[in-house]
Amino acid sequence: MAMPEIRKTKEDPNEAPQEQDLTHDAVFGEITDEGPNYRNVGFLGTVILMMKTQIGLGVLSIPTALDILGLVPGIICICVIAAVTTWSGYIIGIFKLNHREVYGIDDAGGLIFGPLGRWTLSLVFCLYWIFVSGSGILGISISLNAVSSHGACTAIFVAISAILGFTLSSVRTLGKITWLAWIGLPSILVSIIVVTVAVGLQDRPPTAPPTDTVWVSDYKVVGHPSFTEAITAVSALVFAFSGTPGFFAIVSEMRNPRQYTWAVIACQTGVTTVYAIIGSLIYYYCGSNVASPALGSAGGTVKKVCYGLALPGLMVTTTIVTHIPAKYIFIHLLRGSRHLTRNTVVHWSVWLGCTFGVTVVAYIIASAIPIFNSLVSLIGAFLGTLLCFQPMGCMWLYDHWTHKNYPSERWYFMVCWSIFVIVVGTFLMVGGTYGSVVGIIDSYNASGGSSAFSCADNSNSS
């Protein structure tokens, strides 16, 4: 791996963007009134988009992961993963300021590893977000099933979810999607707060076996899972923080990218707090009877209310995670062309073709792997770690390996840290993928292989 000398930026991180920064971009080219404004996301909009990218489907699997790991090890894992992904998010912003031509993680891979790195990370990035889009479609179908008391075949709800995702994700800029995030984030937060209060007030979870005795939560302070179970649970926690690679697209559309670092800190602080408190409370009150997704843990009318409140949030999540890969493909197809920033027939045809193509593949994934926990664990293990851990370690090494002066203690520490992140990410990717695949196979064996494209109610998983 070629390690060129670091290009240190002389820009003041707090300096306001210059006029030319807003009218000309190294990725989008000239920004004019004749097309969409791709550089129109402010600081608060950035924080909201980041939080909505993180807080969505992942939070609904955290109580189940805690049931496998135990309360204390689970919280420790949440904090460790949060720390690593916060650093990864920070590195994205620094790398973007040092290399303005970078739009996605594949551009970073191209700088570091050449064409092979570019194509590999490009493929992984697209697969990851399309799989996440599939989990978003699945989440909406679960919500529709819960609200309607399984009022239609699940396959129909999955198709409706895909249509909603395609329609909303076809909005062309993140700046205009920001207002959706302002609706979606409170929606999902209110729903998980309601279910947390409800499980604290109920006598027993609806999934608990009926007995004549008073039910007591069987939560575990420390779990004793097998390796497969433990690595699958950790993969689900990684998925909860794996919106990080989407930060590339968000920082690229910021009006002032120099504010990015504070946006990352605000986002990750809020996300980690929500995950730790909400996840531990729901698990504490439900124990091993916690539902997956967690919004079904209160059962009955409360379950319908929670899913009804969460539905806008799940729709916005699906909008963002479908928009990101579609925008990525769109930009790479039209980059350097006048059609990228002009309202031409080619512009609209390619854009709608990208959102439609991503949605179709995501729909197939949601229909083929309709087990929520298994799907999020597989995404977190195989694709999430490869985009949240290893590349960021390599990005720091790329920008700092050649040092003009005598290397400092901090330099040695950061080299060791970057290598540690790469090694841990690789271990989680290999082990987590194995555990997730085993879990999917077990689920299919338990259902007789009839789960794919099923009409069965998918809101009653536990």
UniProtKB/TrEMBL annotation:
Residues 43-437 form the Amino acid transporter transmembrane domain. The chain crosses the membrane at residues 41-62, 68-95, 116-142, 148-168, 180-201, 230-250, 262-285, 305-324, 345-369, 375-398, 410-430. Keywords: Membrane, Transmembrane, Transmembrane helix. It comes from the Eukaryota. Residues 1-21 are annotated as: Disordered. InterPro entries: AA_transpt_TM (IPR013057). The keyword Heme does not apply. Signal peptide: none annotated. It is a multi-pass membrane protein. It is found in: Membrane. GO terms for molecular function: L-amino acid transmembrane transporter activity. It holds the Pfam family Aa_trans. The keyword Transmembrane applies. One of its GO terms (cellular component) is membrane. Residues 1-13 have a biased composition (Basic and acidic residues). Its main location: membrane. PANTHER family: AMINO ACID TRANSPORTER, AMINO ACID TRANSPORTER (EUROFUNG). Belongs to the amino acid/polyamine transporter 2 family. This is Putative amino acid transporter.
